[in-house]
Amino acid sequence: MSDWKNHGPRPVAAGEIAGGQLRYFDFVMAAFVAIILLSNVLGAGKVATVTLPWIGDWPFGAGILFFPISYVIGDVLTEVYGYARARRVIWAGSAAVLFMAFMSWVVVALPPAPSWGNQAAYETIFGQVPRIVLASLCAFWVGEFVNSYVLAKMKLWTGGKHLWTRTIGSTVAGQGVDSLIFYPLAFLGAEGWTTNLVLTVLVTQWVLKVSWEVILTPVTYAVVAFLKRREGIDVFDEGTDFTPFKARV
Asked: What is the mean pLDDT of the chain?
C-alpha cells in the first residue's frame, strides 16, 4: 500500500484494496455518521418557512440545511473508496441511528426528579424521535444505497469522467427515494401535518436537496481530488458485489 503515496491516483478495481488501510477513510466515516445523527435530532421535526417572490411563505423541513451534506459525503465515499466501503459506512450510520432511537426512548421514559421541571419540554423535543427515526432509518438506508449504487455504476459507464453527472444523477435518484419514504412515513397523519403539507414539503425537500448537490459540486470536486491524491487511488467497482445485505469490505 505504501507505494500508492509515491504516485498520482491510479485506477484500481475495488477488490484490490479490500482490507487495506486508508489514511482518511475513518475521518470521512465519522463525519458522515455525525451528520446523520445531528440531522435526525435537530433538523427533521421542524418546519420552517421562506418567503418567495410572487408565491409568499413556502414551508420546508429545517433538516434540509445540513442533511444533504451526508449525500455529498456519500458521493465522496463511493467515488474515492468504492461501493463496498460506502456500504460499510451506511451500515455504521444505520446502527448509530438505531442506538440513538433506543437511547432517546430510555431517557424520555425515565421518571424525572421532582425538582426538575423540564420533562414536558423534553418530551416535546424528543418524544417524536422514535417515529421520525424509524422513517429516517428506512429512507436513509434505501436512499443511500440507491445513491451509492447509481454513482458507482455511472462511474463505470463514464470511465471515471464527468464527475458532476454522477454526483448529481445519483442524488436525483437517491434523494428522490429518500423523500418519498421519509415524509409520508414520518409525518402523514401526525399532529400539525396535513396531507397537502406533507406533499409540499416532500417535493420541496427533494428539489432543495438536489439543488444543494449542484451548489456544492465545486466542493465535492475539491474533496474528491484531495482524497484521491492523498490516498493514491481511484477506485472502480469492477466485479463488485452490489448487494446491500453485508458489511464486509
From this structure: 86
Residue 3 binned pLDDT confidence (cut-offs 50, 70, 90): very low
Helix (H, G, I), strand (E, B) or coil at 186: helix
Q: How many CB atoms lie within 10 A of CB 234?
A: 18
pLDDT over 80 (residue 168):
yes
CA terminus-to-terminus distance, the chain: 16
Identify residue 61 by its one-letter amino acid code.
G
CA dist 214 and 121 (Å) reads 38
Residue 180 cell numbers, joined:
418519498
Q: How far apart are CA 185 and CA 135, in angstroms?
A: 5
pTM score, whole prediction: 0.85
Query: Which residues, 6 or more positions from 165, have their beta carbon under 8 angstroms from its beta carbon?
Result: 154, 158
Pairwise CA distance, residues 169 & 167, whole Å: 6
Give the rounded percent of residues in the chain with a pLDDT score beyond 90: 49
Distance between CA atoms of residues 33 and 37, nearest Å: 6
Q: How far is CA 54 from CA 11, 167, 172, 173, in A?
A: 50, 32, 27, 30
Q: How many residues does the chain have?
A: 249
Burial 140-155 (b: 16+ CB within 10 A, else e): bbbbbbbbbbbbbbbb
Q: How far is CA 104 from the centre of its chain?
A: 21
The pLDDT confidence band at residue 73, using thresholds 50, 70 and 90, is very high
